[in-house]
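Second attempt. The first submission of MFS transporter had a stray character pasted in from the spreadsheet, which I only caught after the job came back as garbage. Lesson logged: always re-copy from the clean sequence file. Corrected sequence (488 aa) follows.
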Amino acid sequence: MTGSSLQAAEPGEPREARLLVPSLMFIALVVAAVGSLGTPLITSVATTFHVSLDSAQWTLTIALLSGAVATPLLGRLGAGPHRRATILATLAVVVAGSALTVLPLPFAWLLVGRAAQGVGLGLTALMMGVARDHLPEKRGAPTIALISVVSIIGAGVGYPLAGLLAEFGGVRAAYGLGLFVTAIAFLAAWRSIPVAPEGRSAHVDIAGALVLAGGLFLVLFLASQTRLWSHHFTVAAVLAVVAALLLCVWTVFELRSKTPLVDVRAVRHPAVAGANIAMFVGGIGMYLLLTLITRYAQTPHGAGYGFGLTTFVAGLVLVPFSVLGFVAGKLTPRVRERIDAPLLLAGSAAVVGGGFVLFAVARSNLAELFAAMGVLGFGVGSFSAAMPGVILAATPKSETSSAMSFNYVVRSVGYSLGSAIGGLVLAAGTDTGHLLPNDGAYTTAALVGLAAMAITTAAGLALARRRSHETTPAAALVGASSQGRPGR
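This time the job returned cleanly.
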């Protein structure tokens, strides 16, 4: 398999098929970049709309919340006969939300627009389902791997562009970028996304969807509101108990339902469960390091450390993350021919751990931050590219979107907890009377992240040992399961 196989069309392939791969990649990149637009614009939003930084933070939080809640619902709809209509309708919602962020409306409408943009985060798994159904395996496998990668590195693409536009054209210009690219993504989907194969059915468990939405909302809300834990601990603890109860009730509903929103029994498969655990813990560590580096780079010199970078220049620190993440995503399918996917997960987690070590011991100049961010990007890219292979090897083709949607919900929760843990550790390292944490707090946070990646590495190794008894390392990255596919 060559890296160019992603773009090279088969001889005599219809024009629609030739457009499919770049369209899937572009849509996944756009929804990831637009969903992360709130990150570099928080200060600009606070200034433009005359709201507090805590209120402006909701432009990011609400997108993550709506994305996590919408993902399992879209995954189930994507498993049915109306997948194309689901994708187009979702992109239409994202375009409408993008328009709301650009129009001269009050702050509340900006939040509505950001929530609508966040719904697009649930499309990544549907892109994988399309690739698995409509591409030959030799093209489908690397395409799915790169869709997984671009869904993460999209943040690194959108961050510097949004920062640059915000500096020179204001926050509306930055959000205008989101409107422009989402409109193109809608047109690309209209032209290229095929209908789902015949014989599919998908019944949405409305009650289960509502219970899961409530539980996920509370989990992600509590993860994003660190001040609630420090100032109103009792309230936070009660909400945490309610969230746990809702998720337990949802699990019981799903086990009893004939048409579950997520096939919980399939999720309990050792390979799938292990992969989701690795995604959860690994997501905590990966997002923790990403936030530590970007926050450190923007810390004013007056703190005794940091570089006082502007939003745009700080966004450039993410360029190595995106570039090396994409490189890793291109290389992983070829490496996957020799190394089993769970072992790749373990190795990728170890690489991210190396990024934590580098940040903990060397961050006195920008070159060291660029290096740490590059190591993080390479580790995250290879981890993301290997993850679908572990899950889809035990998943029927018809359940691709649903299975990967659940994995992305797990990832979202892990990312949110990683951000929250970083905030809590840095807050604990802030001396009384000071606004900024001391330099040692960053080292402590890095050690916490290193522990998370050590657990993730161990989980990957455990999966690899188990799988070595069940299958050969030559199993295909995607579609290795005999379920849902006629024999050749």
